[in-house]
Design a protein that fits this description.
alpha/beta; Rossmann fold; 2 domains; seven-stranded mixed β-sheet; two-stranded antiparallel ribbon; 11 strands; 21% strand
């Protein structure tokens, strides 16, 4: 395991940041590939340690960092992992990189259901890396969940992430388009969640190249107005939700009011637009009847 002085390491780190990029991306690289987290670095300062021990040498780490800067490839894909809430998740270019704002979905669920010990049956449509479903399955080990995705490669990644994150067996994975894998569960869901593709066509064309050139188009593009998939999910939700079952959707920053009206039109009650930490109406929720 390569050893390096703290002073030399800090100089190297400063040099890498001077080439471009941001602190958060470099921290992810150092933690995932180098085995040095921010807390490790802070602890070394507190304890006046003179050396750090790296999982990979600096030349290797620098080559990944320069690839990230030159190609604009997301550091998460280059490292093969990302951190989300308290999860360490495997990611490839077959799945969308889970965003920090999506973490709030778990908090919304907690606000609705609290610490209720009774069983809840939930489904996530379009699970990608599995982040949301895995977080819920861990938070509520008595619940049962199904996570679906249209892409088998994505489901394999999500399944591995679940196995790596949990010792429980309260989450299953099915392949198919939105509600299709859930035909045998009509009228049985207490909760359905989706962070579907919702980027409008004209907005998609203007996305930063690190998103547009690398992340899966199928997980981003939501048709001409961005609401193609959201409409389908809402229109079919009443077939699968129990009475008073909840639907939670993530949407584009300016779609909240339109999604709210779609929910009301389809007989949802207690419909609400929930802001993310930036004050943007990122989520729209409703209870069926």
């Amino acid at each position: 395991m390569p050893s390096i002085s703290v002073k030399e390491f800090l100089f190297w780190k400063k040099t890498q940041l001077s080439k471009g990029g941001d602190h958060q991306s470099l921290a992810l690289l150092l933690d995932s590939a180098g085995g040095i987290s921010n807390s490790d670095l802070n602890l070394s300062r507190i304890k006046s340690r003179e050396h750090l021990y790296l999982r990979k040498n600096l030349d290797y780490l620098e080559s990944i960092w320069e690839d990230h800067l030159l190609s604009s490839s997301p550091i998460q894909y280059l490292c093969g992992i990302t951190f989300w809430r308290d999860l360490k998740l495997k990611v490839t270019d077959k799945v969308l990189i889970p965003r920090p704002e999506s973490e709030l979905i778990v908090d919304i669920v907690f606000k609705i259901f609290g610490k209720k010990p009774q069983k809840v049956f939930f489904a996530e449509l379009g699970t990608g890396s599995g982040a949301i479903s895995i977080a819920l399955a861990l938070k509520y080990p008595l619940w049962d969940g199904i996570a679906t995705d249209i892409d088998q490669d994505a489901l394999e990644i999500a399944t591995k992430n679940y196995i790596n994150s949990s010792k429980h067996s309260n989450l299953k994975f099915f392949c198919g388009h939105w509600w299709t894998p859930l035909e045998s569960y009509k009228g049985k869901l207490d909760l359905a969640i989706s962070n579907p593709p919702y980027i409008p066509q004209d907005t998609y064309e203007k996305l930063p190249k690190e998103v547009k050139n690398f992340e899966p188009k199928i997980a981003l593009l939501g048709g001409e107005d961005g609401l193609k998939h959201i409409r389908e999910i809402i229109q079919n939700a009443p077939l699968f939700l129990r009475e008073k079952g909840w639907l939670i959707l993530e949407n584009h920053y300016d779609q909240g009011e339109k999604v709210k009206q779609l929910l009301i039109k389809n007989k949802f009650k207690a419909v609400e637009i929930v802001n993310d930490l930036s004050g943007v109406g990122r989520f729209t929720i409703g209870r069926y009847k």
